[in-house]
């Protein structure tokens, strides 16, 4: 008789434990859902600001240096904002001439240490090469 009561008591305890666990899991799921929703507005607020700052960066004109070294333009391709100035410096011991494919600019003869600057006002892709060594090629992308 006593054993039977104890057995019933144990089943009741197990049932209560399962119900408590289920209730706790439901509370976790609902609680997690609420905390996710409450975090969304705060996390989306800086996300709106981030693209604004990255949009502003390319719009800022700058002065960019391209070195001429080892019969190559370094870097060979640059992407910059309209109004930016590119300064080429010849670090080779031979003469190089920075020439635009569309004849937009021409540096003339650049000996060692000489520089040439050009300001890009228009958006677009500008291909250039060295008139002395036409295999030397570069590109300026204005955004
Ligand atoms: Cu050259």
Give structural attributes.
single chain; 143 residues; Immunoglobulin-like; 2 domains; four-stranded mixed beta sheet; 1 helix
List the helices and strands and how they pair.
Blueprint: H1 2-59, E1 63-68, E2 73-74, E3 77-80, E4 84-90, E5 98-100, E6 115-120, E7 124-130, E8 137-142
Parallel strand pairs: 1-4, 3-8
Antiparallel strand pairs: 1-2, 4-6, 5-7, 7-8
Description:
With 143 residues, the chain is α/β, with parallel strands linked by helices. It folds into 2 domains: 57 residues; 80 residues, Immunoglobulin-like (Sandwich), CATH 2.60.40.420. Helix content is 41%, strand content 29%. A hairpin with a 4-residue loop joins strand 1 and strand 2. The longest helix has 58 residues. The N and C termini lie far apart (89 Å). About 22% of the residues have low confidence. Bound molecules: copper (II) ion. Copper (II) ion binds next to loops.
Task: Please outline what is shown here.
With 143 residues, the protein is α/β, with parallel strands linked by helices.
Assign the CATH topology of the largest domain. Answer: Immunoglobulin-like
| Series of H and E elements | HEEEEEEEE
What is the number of beta strands?
A: 8
- What integer is the average pLDDT? 77
- The total domain count is 2
Helix content: 40-55%
Report the β-strand fraction as a percent range. Answer: 25-35%
CATH class call of the largest domain: Mainly Beta
- Number of H- or I-type helical stretches: 1
SS-derived structural category: alpha/beta
């Amino acid at each position: 008789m006593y054993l039977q009561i104890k057995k019933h008591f144990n089943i009741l305890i197990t049932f209560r434990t399962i119900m408590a666990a289920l209730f706790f899991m439901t509370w976790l799921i609902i609680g997690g859902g609420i905390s996710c929703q409450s975090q969304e507005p705060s996390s989306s607020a800086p996300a709106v600001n981030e693209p604004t700052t990255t949009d502003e960066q390319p719009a800022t004109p700058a002065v960019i240096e391209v070195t001429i070294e080892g019969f190559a333009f370094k870097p060979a391709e640059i992407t910059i904002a309209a109004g930016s100035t590119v300064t080429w410096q010849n670090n080779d011991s031979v003469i190089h001439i920075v020439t635009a494919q569309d004849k937009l600019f021409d540096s003339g003869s650049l000996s060692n240490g000489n520089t040439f600057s050009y300001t890009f006002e228009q958006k677009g892709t500008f291909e250039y090469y060295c008139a002395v060594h036409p295999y030397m090629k570069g590109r300026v992308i204005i955004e």
